[in-house]
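Q: Start with the shorter request: fold the first protein.
A: Done. Sequence, then structure:
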Amino acid sequence: MIYLYSVLTVVAFFLSVKLSKKLAISLLNPFLLTLSLLLAILIIFQIPYKDYQRGTSPLSHFLGLAIVALAIPLYEQFPQIRRRWKAIGFILLLGTVVSICSGMLLALLFGGTKDIVAALMPKSVTMPLALVIAGEIGGEFALSAVGVMVAGLFGSILGVPILKLARITNPQAIGMSLGIASHALGTARCMEINAKSASYSSLALVVCGLLSSFIAPLIFQLAVKWFM
C-alpha cells in the first residue's frame, strides 16, 4: 500500500510535464510543479514525510539508470568534443572554480559560518556528489541539499532566458552553461532543446562534479585561512 506514493509521484510528474508543455511558460518548470503538487498533497492529507520517503524508495533504484542515460547524447557528440577538448577543458575548469567561489562568497556576504560556507560551495554539483563534498569539508547536509535544489531550479528555469538576453544561441555554449551552473536539472532542460546541448551539458555535469571534489576542499581551506 505504501508504494502507492511512487505511483503518486510518477503521476504528479506526468501531469506537470503535460501542463508545462501546454502553457509553454518557462517559470512553470515540471520539477517545480511536481514539487509544489506533492508538497500540497503531503500537507493537506497530513502524510508523514518518512512514509512518503519509504514509499518512493523503488524510484531511487532508477537514479543510477538515469545517470547512465546521460551518456547517450555525450557518446553521440564525442568526436566533436574530442576535437575541442582543450578549450572545453579550460571552460569547465573555470566554470567549476566560479561556481564554487560564488557559493562561498554568497555565504560570506550574509555572514555565514564555516558550516554554511561549506554547505553552499558545492551548490552547482549534482545532489549525491554535492552531499559527499559538503560532508568532507564540514557542511550541513540539509542546507547543502537546499542549495543544490535552488541552483538547479534557477538554472533550469531562468538559464535559457538569460542566455537569450545575452544573445548566446550556440547549443554547445548553452549546454555547458546549464551543466556547469545547474547540474542534472540544467541537463534535463537541455534535453528539451536539442541533443547537442544535452551532450555538452552532460559532459559539464560529470566533469565539473569530479573537479569540484578536488577543488572545493582546497578553496575552502583558503577561505578559512583568509576570511574566517
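Q: Next, the second protein, separately.
A: Sequence, then structure:
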Amino acid sequence: MKFQVRVIYLAVWMVFLLVFIRVDFRFSLGDFIDVTERVCGCTSCIMDPQEEPWFIERYDGKVPKLMNRANSNISALTHNWWMRLQPSRSVNLSDVVEPLFSLFRDEEHYSDSGPDRCRTCAVVGNSANLIRSHYGAMIDAHDFVFRMNHGPTQGYERDVGLKTTHRAIYPESAVDLDNSTHLVLLPFKVLDLQWLISVFTTKNITRTYHAVKPYIKANKDKVMIINPEFIRYVYERWLMKKGKYPSTGFIILMLAVHICDQVNVFGFGASANGRWYHYFDHWHRQSIHAGVHRGGVEYDVILKLEQQQRIKMYKGW
C-alpha cells in the first residue's frame, strides 16, 4: 500500500514538473519570437486590428480603386447610378475603354501592400485652416502627397508644402501639372473620359456642362482614373447614400485610406473662425457651399476615422 502511494505521489510530482517546464518553455519562447503578424512596415498601420467594428464593417479592399481594362466592366447597378450623376449626351462607357487604355497605361496600381511596406500619405485639402499653419515641411515629408483641383503651392509653400505626387481633377477643375505629378481623374460622366483622351490627342472637347480647357500640360504616362465602382462604394458604404455623390476631397481621402499605410489629413474642415473658404481665396469672398455634397456627413466620417486612429487630422492653429 505504501508503495502504491509512493508511485501515485511520484506520478503527480512528475506531471507537475512537466506542466511547469512546459509553461516555462512557452514563456521563454515569447521573449524571443514576435508572434504578432505585422500589417505593414510602419509603427502603426491603418489596417491594425481593433475591437471596434465600425471601420471593418465599411472597408472593402477588393473594390477596384483605379481603372484598367480588366476592371472597367463595371456592374449594371454602378453603371446606372454613375450615368445619372451628371447626365450628358455621350457614348457608353464600354465604347471608350479601348481608346482609353490604348493611350494610357493599363496596369494594376498599388497592389503591393504587405508587412515590409510603409507608405505614408498626406491628403491636402483646400481649407483656409491651412493659413499660417506652417505645415509645409511636414506635408512634403510624406511618400505621397495628394492635392485637389487647382489648390496652388506657389506662394503658399510654408503652409501647404511644395511636393505634389498626385493631383485629383475633373475636366471643369483641370490645371497644368509638372512632369512628375500623377493626374488622377475623377470621372462623373463618360464625357469626362472622352475629354481626357481629347486632351492628349485631338484637343477638340471644349465644353461639358460649361467651358473646359481643351488642353493641359501633364505626363501621359502618369495618368490614373478613379473607377466608378469605387465612387459608388464610397458613396454607399461610407456616406450611407447621403447627398448626391461624394466630393473630390472625400473620394481622394478614401483612396489614400485604401492604398496607404499611414494617412495624415491637412486642410479639411472650417477655418479657425468657423467659416468655410479656401486658403487661396481673398478674405472677403463668400463661404463655400457644399452643393450636391453633404459636407457635414463627410466631415463626421473623417472625424470618426481619426477617433479610431485610422488617420490623423491637422486642423491648423
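Q: Describe the second briefly.
A: Confidence is low (pLDDT under 50) at residues 15-35, 286-290. The first strand starts at residue 120 and ends at 124.
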